[in-house]
Amino acid sequence: MGALHLAYAEAIDLPVVQEKMRRHIEVDAKGRYTETVERISRVMNEYGADRIGRHTFSHKTSKETLKVIDAKVIQPDGKVLRLEKDWVKTTRSGENDGRSFGDEHSTVVVFPQVMVGSRLYSKYVLQRLKAEKPGEFAIKLNLSPHMVYEDSQTTLRAPKSLKLLVNHRGLEGGIIHETARHVTYQFRIKQLVAHKPEDDAVDYEDFAPYLIFTQAPDYLEIGRQYLRASAPKVRITPEIRKLAMQLTADASSDMGKAKILYDWVSRNIRYISTTVGDGGFVPRDSAYIFSRRFGDCKDHAVLLEAMLRAVGIESTAALINLGEAFELNPGPAANSPINHVITYIPSLDLYLDSTAQIVPFGKLDEDVLDKPTVLVALSRYGRTPKMQAADNTEVARTELVLNADGEIEGTTKATMSGTLEINRRFAYFAGLTNRMDTTINELLLRFNEIGRGHLEVTASSKTDLPYRWDAQFSLEPIADLKRSGAFMIPVGATPGYIAEKTLHKPLDKREFPFVCESVTAEDHLTLKLPETITVESIPADVTHLSAHVTYTARYQQVDDTLRVDRKLVFNYPSRKCPPAYQSEVVEASRVIRADFKSAVVYRAK
């Protein structure tokens, strides 16, 4: 059986490569399994010797046990150092932010005397004591395009009674042995070139190799599995019914009722995640969530479903990826990349995510926009709304006065909508917690400006109010106006969506799909000039048009006032953009940088 060599984008020299991997999984009739993994990694450079001389394995203590049974270091000269007890360390891993609680532990083999050329060998046995989800078996192995796998092989043996299905991409293999009761699969891959990660690339689950063993023929079955676990948890207790009816007593429409209940759940049920045991897949009971006033995404969806049903509105949980994965691959499925649950109301064709507590009703955070969903109660697929440029806006109006000493006095008033509003609400969720001079300095230093000022923004929790930005500021002299010269038009303490495009040079090209956003940003600026100078030239107007990016800049002087109007529109058909679109980003960035560097030429009187 041959091995498949996958090639990707620009290659990278790795500090460590995986020389050999042998994974053997033995599954029993209840979906429990024993996994034995042997691994050899080879240290390629000094960084690898200093920083990556270890093997790390994780397991969940409520469902699994893990034991390292062998390890050794094979030095370049052939000397072998064998496992000693103090090589193995176990630590608790996972979130420690007070909002997420799990039982995942990391076991680390810390190899001694690691040098360039060392070969690090380990062998461990993991025992899964219960199925990942009650009564169901699924396992998915993902391989990163940013790693080298010189010789990787996975073997799985399972009872035929499980009726396992297999789905894979980028590997070669299949059934290698059968008996009356068991079937054995084997798959292998060679990936001899690793490739550099790309900023804003989609999750590599969308394109990289994977291997799935599962009982689910598709993601709809994953939804049915979730429904079996979650439906009994949606209980309308007297307390839940009473509050839902009271809250919506004055609402005249289902949309109005849905808004009231969404607002209540998002503001009153704080996010707390517990993944111990079945907690990662099975929600809590609605009565428990209601009384405790906390829960994770599954719990939010359960309680909101109960409250909506109490006032006559049916809804369903919608399984989705929160992040950068945009595909639910056809065929047999495991949970990944699904990692989040939101709410869908069919009668209103409306998605809601009450865990995103500062997202206004009817809106979604960009991490769940334009994504496939599994609508569990409807047993069908759905899709969250596409990102439209007209829905995600930033409009800033800035008034500047250039004094005779070169200092600038200015104000900016800005409004935002859609994802640009939501991102600002998250950025200032804790309020303007820094000293005001620090806040203003951070805004100005983005564009190498220095000054002082004051900023007020709409409280993030006030989701019924339009989001507004109100800044007053002064800048240190931008030019010596006593002598003739030129100056670039300052940005000031503005939100600066367009101006920020000048701060970073985009990748010249891409090999992987990337996450793109459809937005409309406008900057309208007036600059009042002092009587002590005469303007000899102003920047030229700019018009840049491509298939998905539009940028315009207009300059006009009327008497002693210069007016600048800039507009940038990204308008893509999807949030997942093909690599070919990058050339538009590169060219638009070049045009914007050149425009912001253009100067007003003046003569001192």
Describe this structure in words.
The chain is α+β, with helices and mostly antiparallel strands and 605 residues long. It folds into three domains: 16-215, Sandwich (Immunoglobulin-like); 223-385, C8orf32 fold (Roll), CATH 3.10.620.30; 390-604, Jelly Rolls (Sandwich). 17% of the residues lie in helices and 38% in strands. It contains nine helices and 36 strands. The strands form nine sheets. An eight-stranded mixed beta sheet has the order 5-4-9-2-1-11-14-13. The protein has an eight-stranded mixed beta sheet with strand order 26-27-25-24-30-34-33-32. Helix 3 (238-247) packs across helix 6. The radius of gyration is 29 Å and the shape is globular. It starts with 15 loop residues before the first strand and ends with a strand.
Summary keywords:
C8orf32 fold; 605 residues; eight-stranded mixed sheet; 36 strands; 9 helices; 17% helix; Immunoglobulin-like; disordered N terminus; alpha+beta; Jelly Rolls
Count of helical regions: 9
In spatial order, strands of the major sheet run 5-4-9-2-1-11-14-13
Helical/strand content category: alpha+beta
User: What is the overall pLDDT average?
Assistant: 94
Strand fraction: 35-45%
Helical percent range? 10-25%
CATH class of the largest domain: Mainly Beta
Tally of strands: 36
Low-confidence residue ranges: 1-9
Describe the sheet with the most strands: 8 strands, mixed
The gross shape turns out to be globular
Question: And the CATH topology of the largest domain?
Answer: Jelly Rolls
Number of folding domains? 3
Q: Kindly, what is the distance between the CA atoms of the first and last residues, rounded to a whole number of angstroms?
A: 84 Å
